[in-house]
Specification:
Blueprint (H helix, E strand, L loop, with lengths): L4 E3 L4 E6 L5 E6 L1 H11 L4 E3 L7 H13 L2 E2 L9 E8 L2 E7 L10 H9 L5 E5 L7 H14 L3 E5 L10 H12 L4 E5 H6 L10 H9 L5 E5 L4 E6 L13 E6 L11 H15 L6 H6 L1 H16 L9 H6 L1
Parallel strand pairs: 1-4, 1-8, 2-6, 4-5, 8-9, 9-10, 10-11
Antiparallel strand pairs: 2-3, 6-7, 11-12, 12-13
Length: about 325
């Protein structure tokens, strides 16, 4: 039986600024996008954060259900989070409104109790969930989940412009990263963390820094240039003469509408590929198909970039492209 992917994170409305000054509401939130992307590929997905009882919250819940994922927590009377998105040359910038919102209306011990009632799978979080003081609850969940045998997936996905205390935020991100089994970071994430030599020709050295923290699988994304996947040095397989595995590829060339949710779609495709091919706890299997996993993830992200907002492809659509 393949492992389930459970997601703890923000679900919000991306209010995209138009040229005429109006706002176009689109369903979003990095972990929410990822949950939909994984489920659309046919994996078993549960969403742990509450949805609001307001109109936006119910739209988010409906989209999650349509993707094939399941909402696992009761609804909240608090409002849905909002993000105002400005897109310049296809690249989004964000402003967030997240005080007293539904996706933060949960008790960490309640989440732990849910985890205890199910076989260990993959627990994904990151993005705004690493923002102090929210990270205290999230770290509580992660620590218990890891002790129970869950595989921890983290998307760094920094949002430094909305941090009240930037040093504390960056410290919390690294604290969370040290608990990760699987981790994704973009070139922008690493630059914001103050890393040097962050460029396309240096992916192996950059990945080595994440692997040194204890991560077993690392994805590094470089926008239109492409992405790479790396596995820890103790990984071996029949086709790897050395005791390491990595893959690197350029992004497909497409007509980009915007890049909203591209990273979520990419990492969601990686998680879906890994759980559907039963690689959780089987790094040798993951190493064998690392190139295939990367190519699928890049293709999924490219399809998403051809659309407005985050719209990951389904498995059927993916197969037809």
């Amino acid at each position: 039986m393949t492992a389930a992917v459970w997601v703890l994170g923000e679900a919000l409305m991306d209010c995209v600024a138009r040229a005429d000054g109006s706002l176009q509401p689109l369903l979003g939130g990095s972990p929410f996008n990822l949950a939909c992307a994984v489920a659309l590929q046919g994996a078993d997905v549960g969403y742990l954060s509450p949805f609001s009882t307001d109109v936006f919250g119910q739209q988010l819940a409906a989209k999650l259900n349509e993707s094939g994922a399941k909402a696992l927590s009761p609804t909240s009377p608090k409002p849905t989070s909002l993000a105002v998105v400005n897109i310049l040359d296809g690249q989004p910038s964000y402003g967030f409104y997240r005080d007293g919102v539904a996706d933060r209306d949960y008790n960490a011990d309640d989440i732990v109790r849910l985890l205890k009632q199910h076989p260990p799978g993959v627990l994904h979080t990151g993005s705004l969930m690493a923002m102090p003081p929210e990270h205290h609850k999230v770290m509580h969940v992660i620590q218990f989940a890891k002790a129970m045998g869950w595989t921890i997936s983290i998307d760094v996905n920094l949002r430094t412009r909305v941090a009240y205390d930037l040093p504390a935020y960056l410290q919390a991100v690294m604290q969370m990263a040290r608990m990760a089994d699987w981790l994704k970071a973009s070139d922008e994430d690493m630059q914001l963390l103050g890393w040097t030599d962050v460029h396309w020709d240096n992916t192996d050295a950059l990945a080595a820094q994440w692997l040194a923290l204890g991560c077993q699988r690392v994805a590094l994304t470089f926008g239109a240039q492409g992405a790479s996947l790396h596995m820890a040095s103790d990984v071996s397989s029949a086709s790897t003469k050395t005791h390491s595995a990595h893959a690197k590829a350029a992004a497909p060339t497409v007509q980009v509408v915007d890049t909203v949710g591209a990273g979520d779609t990419f990492w969601g495709s990686c998680l879906a590929d890994w759980v559907l091919h039963d690689t959780v706890g089987h790094d040798d299997v993951a190493a064998e198909r690392l190139d295939s996993t990367l190519q699928r993830a890049l293709k999924a992200a490219a399809i998403n970039c051809e659309r407005v907002g985050c719209q990951p492809p389904s498995s059927e659509e993916f197969a037809s492209r």
